[in-house]
Design goal:
Number of strands: 11
Number of domains: 1
CATH superfamily: Bira Bifunctional Protein, Domain 2
Structural class: alpha/beta
Shape: globular
Number of helices: 5
Helix content: 25-40%
CATH architecture: 2-Layer Sandwich
Amino acid sequence: MTSWRLLIDGPASPARNMAVDEALLREVCEPVLRIYEWNVPAVSLGYFQPHALAGERPFIRRYTGGGLVDHAHDMTYTIVLPRAHPWMELSAPDSYCMIHRGVQAVLAACGIEAELTPEASAIESEACFVKPVRFDIVASTGKLSGAAQRRTREGLLHQGSILLPDSARNSDLRNAFAGAFSKRLEVDLQPGNLTISESSRAADLERERYSTEAWNRSR
């Protein structure tokens, strides 16, 4: 059983949330699971999406790709893996599937039945939760969870979102996440904090990238 660092963060600004995620990737030396919240009901855009999709809502551009995600009622988490981690030997779809098996176990721990979709939906949409792709998590009510990944020379950044029909159950998800995820995927989650180096990198990224129009309106 491998050891991962567990970060539990309260509400923060969109710029801060995305800056911390990228800082964890840039400074990665061990696997990290981060569970966090948003202090405003913003939307996040995939790296390649035009900013006009956000309309008049507060928005942030992610470092990962994928579709628009509305963070008004969802629960968000991030996984960062170093280049040397065994899961990095998996293909992108297989690593996506592996992580979503863990998220499926979290939902099951909360009494929510869901499955991984075997193939992408034919629906065309710029919104993440309208268009399930292969290995997304779906239920009879529709798509419950999706994610986007980016691989760099440092490692893997996986940013995920869970959207339940009843957002009042988000606290149940947060409470169950670490235990169910670690049991299903056989990882040892150890509570921790950002390192000094990660905190410094996050502050720089928040100021110089994620708080700027040059980044957020680059497309």
